[in-house]
Amino acid sequence: MLKSSMSSNKILSLNECRKPSMKMLAAFSLDTAPLSAETRALAEREIRETPEQVQKSLAELRQLLQENNTLTYKDTDEYLTIFLRPTHFYAESAYNLMKRLATFKEKNEKIVANPLPREEKKLFTENNVVNVLVDRDQKNRRVLIINMGSAWDPKSLNSEQLFKVLYLIQIASLVEEETQVRGAVIIIDFHGLSTKQVMAMSPSFAMTLLLYIQEAMPLRMKEVHIVRQPFLFNMVWPMFKQFVGEKLKKRLFFHGNKMSSLHKHLDANMLPEDYGGKKPKLSYSSADWYPVLQDLQSYIADWNTYGLKK
Fold first, then answer.
1. What is the pLDDT of residues 248-302, one digit of tens each?
2. CA–CA separation, 222 vs 95, rounded Å?
3. Residues 213-237: what's their mean pLDDT?
4. CA–CA separation, 264 and 258 (whole Å)
5. Per CATH, which fold does 37-113+301-308 belong to?
């Protein structure tokens, strides 16, 4: 569950974030427990994660990084495993993912060069566009909600800032080993979409978002669900469709207002009432779990230093 670690302003390192806090004073905190036996078994089946393969892949990835010497990176098992898990422990694929992420950061420096939670606080506390469900789904995956309809005021949160919010949340999610293995699911809610939001969604935003998700994001993206999209959505979709690759197409689902269709993929028992689920209606927002990002200030600052060598 995403519960807040503490109400204080203490900045935690990544290792400290993985020590369960005894102070559960606020609503959310990261799931810092080691992988369960069930998840370890899943990792072995799905991504070849065995002790022998892990050590072999780590050694091969280190060798590739040393031979090429074009990236600045953290040479720890923990950090390198973040890239090996979404690439099924194929070292060359992990290296290429690291290189694509570094290149993406270089090309989009204006947005993701050095985003820090304390400098982006208003984006989280004064907008309710992006949210993370407290409950994981039936497969123990994280569920991210993006409200791109009437809940989104582009004057308050432009498309570049929206991407920055998503980027910071994704970095935070990598603290959770469970999420590294199980992956994440996105629900994009277009309820109340108007021309105001349509005008804010440019082809460049669509390209940047989908390029990151498909090419540079070190996280297993399992499914993307489009819900409550009105007829006006037909003006938006062509901008995104042109950048959607074959792999993502197979994981992209359109439901409209038919929540029973969504429930074929996400168990209603794990969803809030907002999406026809049996959990209570959403009563929290990104402002409630912003303290999680504050706790990860040092970790995110460290992550920002990795990329192409200057």
1. 999 999 999 999 999 999 999 999 999 999 999 999 889 998 999 999 999 999 9
2. 21
3. 96
4. 11
5. Helicase, Ruva Protein; domain 3 (1.10.8)
The CATH code for residues 117-297 is: 3.40.525.10
Instruction: Give first-to-last CA distance, the chain, whole Å.
Output: 39
Owner of token pair 């689902």: 253
DSSP of 9-27, one letter per residue? -PPPPHHHHTS--S---SS
Calpha distance 166→146 (Å, rounded): 9
pLDDT tens string 69-84: 999 999 999 999 999 9
Ramachandran area for residue 192 (φ above 0: left; ψ -120 to 50: alpha; else beta): left
Q: For residue 309, report the phi and psi dihedrals to the nearest 5 degrees.
A: -70, 135
pTM as predicted: 0.90
> What is the pLDDT confidence band of residue 12, given thresholds at 50, 70 and 90?
very low
Retrieve residue 272's tokens: 């809030």
